[in-house]
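Hi team,

As requested, here is the filled-out complex form for the nicotinamide-adenine-dinucleotide run. I kept the field names the same as last time so the parser does not choke. Let me know if anything looks off before we queue the next batch.

— J.
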Amino acid sequence: MGLDDFKENQEVKTIDASKKLRIGIIGCGWIADSHMNSYLKQPDVEIVAGADLIPGKAAKFMAKYGLENVKTDYASHKEMLDDKSLKLDAVSICTYNCQHAVPAIYALEKGVNVLLEKPFTVTLDEAVAVMKAEKKSGKILSIGFQPRMDANMKMIKKIVESGALGKIYYIQTGGGRRRGIPTPYGTTFIEKDTAGIGALGDIGCYSLDMVLNAIGYPKPLTVSGYKSAFFGTDPNYCNYVKTGHPEYAAKFGVDDFAAAFIRLEGGIILDFRIAWAMNLDTPGDTIIMGTKGSLRIPSTECWNGTVGGPMILYHEVCGEQTQTEIPILKMKEGLFDLKIRTFLDAIKEGGKAPVPSSQILYNQAIIDGIAKSSECGHEVEIKIPEI
Ligand SMILES: NC(=O)c1ccc[n+]([C@@H]2O[C@H](COP(=O)([O-])OP(=O)(O)OC[C@H]3O[C@@H](n4cnc5c(N)ncnc54)[C@H](O)[C@@H]3O)[C@@H](O)[C@H]2O)c1
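And here is what came back:
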């Protein structure tokens, strides 16, 4: 395996700009900027509409990009998707977690392709409902996991697939921040009604995806989970105090730490912990242990960009214990640009979703299982309904 394997990421593709894809943005907050910046770099895209629940927000958002003529006079996703004159090819759904499922289902029912931000949904039932709509529509639904586009993340999967680790039996993943409850733009990440889940879904979904994607997304069987909210509910939490928002403590309705012990099909144990805040630098690196070799992936605060440093492969050569440092691979293209481009290519070429719901369903099932197990105080079986 050499660095040349990653040329696929660096190739310059010729894009047929003769037909423009008509794109709408649902939810014009923080992450919508990343989508917009990447869409505007694509020669085959026309931004035709934007919607936000907050009156005037979508218009202001479009004006920021000089797109004053784009239609934005919609009270929610529904009015925009009902507007037949838009002839939408696709939408980016950039709403907070509790508003992922409803707009996604509505868009798919209207025959519109969907790029849905992560986490997939809040609950497993919602994810199943979205997938039923996806199946019925025959449209593309891709979930916004841009780390999948990262060459280093791809390297983890390549190492696993090469057989260098042998049979994998134990994985530890997670990570997090010492003081990093995300409230720079208000409280949509921490209120129960908007976020639904906290660190568990927000950054936990990334570390879960990193390892589950690498090992081929085996089915999760059982989970014993725990979650807590000691920092977010404390009015003296340093970042609330620093930003002058002690009232955020009373609004905090999600988790800021979660941990779990998960059994996966194939006799694999997954040990997980994630934090938005903790009195620690990291709860540990990600490790993938196998019968022939093990991989250490240095922790990061979020996992939404790249790995936290060179990965180390521990193995034997001719009976001697040794270790190999995997150099960090640099990317020419931005991960968000690749997330948008691969979604557009899938629509144009009739291909598969770059990040398919069928995989992320298991990610969501684990998140849902952790929440349920934490609430009932014992291990739960993960039951995934037929879609
Ligand atoms: N991929 C990434 O790197 C990344 C980074 C940050 C956030 N996110 C995800 O993106 C999502 C949005 O996060 P954000 O920080 O932009 O939140 P935000 O609160 O800044 O913006 C969300 C916007 O959606 C609007 N909205 C909600 N429901 C709507 C509906 N039905 N119709 C129209 N508008 C609606 C809200 O009014 C709000 O303006 C979250 O799920 C988050 O997890 C992803």
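Two things worth flagging: The longest strand covers residues 168-176. The pocket of nicotinamide-adenine-dinucleotide is lined by residues 26-32, 51-54, 57, 76-77, 94-97, 99, 103, 117-118, 144, 146, 185, 188, 202, 304 (CB under 6 Å).

Thanks,
J.
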